[in-house]
Every structure is written in structure tokens, then in C-alpha cells.
Predict the 3D structure of the following.
Amino acid sequence: MRLTPIIGALACLGLASAAAAADFGGSLKDDYSAPAGHNWTGLYIGGNFGWANGDYANQEPSGWAGGAQIGYNLQLGQIVIGAEADYQWSDMDGRVQDLIIGESDIDSFASVRARLGLAIDRAMPYVTAGYGWADVDARILGLGEDSNTHDGWVYGGGVEFALRPDLSIRGEYLHYDLGSEDYTFGGVGPLPADLDFQTIRVGASYRFGP
């Protein structure tokens, strides 16, 4: 049975404060001061680590994955738009044993995505979507092995929280729908195989500023 993670919506609320000051001359003046919100604009780099699992040729490859991301944000009012690229190393593997014994390894995958977020002081929930790909090595016992690069769509979302002006942490869910490729094992084929998987990961980023 394929694991389907349940992703809850995360939100944080910013609180504004107001102060009233009385003038000694008898007049009363109201003075409102809102705390400066975090500015998400700028280039950032970082790393991430998490768990991945999915479907491939009746197998359920799963395992740990970790890598690096680089991106740029532009904040317009409360709206944050940006682009991000990431590359992941993975120990995802799967196995099926029926009439044949088949195995698969996903050693690496990557994506290039747009991001759209809502700045709520130090918190930024966001959605993201773009293009992704993954390298797959497959084997059938007694026939041989083949490899392919699958590519397709990636989409998901998460929430990022600023610990300080230049450092943030995040939690993120991504779904990779990478389509079908043909495999040939020892002259048998082509055999089509679909690949889709999902990741849940945490990460941190250092921002260089606007």
C-alpha cells in the first residue's frame, strides 16, 4: 500500500501593537507604531533532509533524501514571489518479487520551481510548482539492467520561518509526477515504467539580503 502523507496547513499570525502617549500640556496624542516585518527579498542558499517514497513498476521505492537549494525571493507588500532550484541525493530503492524479481534505485533527483508565498511577519506559508527529473537504475534478475532519466511536473507547498534576518528554517512537501520511460533488459523490451513519488523534508537557508 502506498504511503500517502497527510499535510496539514500551517499558519502563523503576526501581532501589531499600539501605544498612546499623553501630552503634559493637556493635549492627548495617539501614536501608533507597528513592528517592522521580516523582509524576504534576496538571494539564498541552503540544505534540506527528509523522507521520500513512491511508485515505480509495481514497486514502492522509499528511503532518505538530502540535498541543497538555491533561490531568489522578491517581496511585494505581503506577497512573496520567487524561483528555486534544488538537487537531492537519495538512497531510495524498491523491490518486487512475483514471477520475476525486479529492483530499482533512485540515486538522485532535482527540480526547478516557482514559489508564491504570503509574508506574515516572520512566517511565510507558500505553494510551489515547476519541472523535475530523477535518475533511475532498474534490474530484472536473470535478464539484466537498464537506466533512464524521468522528467515531469513537481508541485507542493510548505512554510518557512525566519529565525533572524539572514537565516530561516522550513518544512516542505513535494509531489513528483515524472511520467513513463521505456526499459530494455537483455533484449526484452521496450517495457514502459511510470515514476511518481513524494517527499517530506525540513531545511534551512541563508539569505544574502536584497
Confidence is low (pLDDT under 50) at residues 1-35. The CA atoms of residues 135 and 149 lie 5 Å apart. The beta strands are 18-22, 28-32, 42-56, 62-76, 79-97, 101-118, 123-140, 144-164, 167-185, 188-207. The chain has one domain: 46-207.
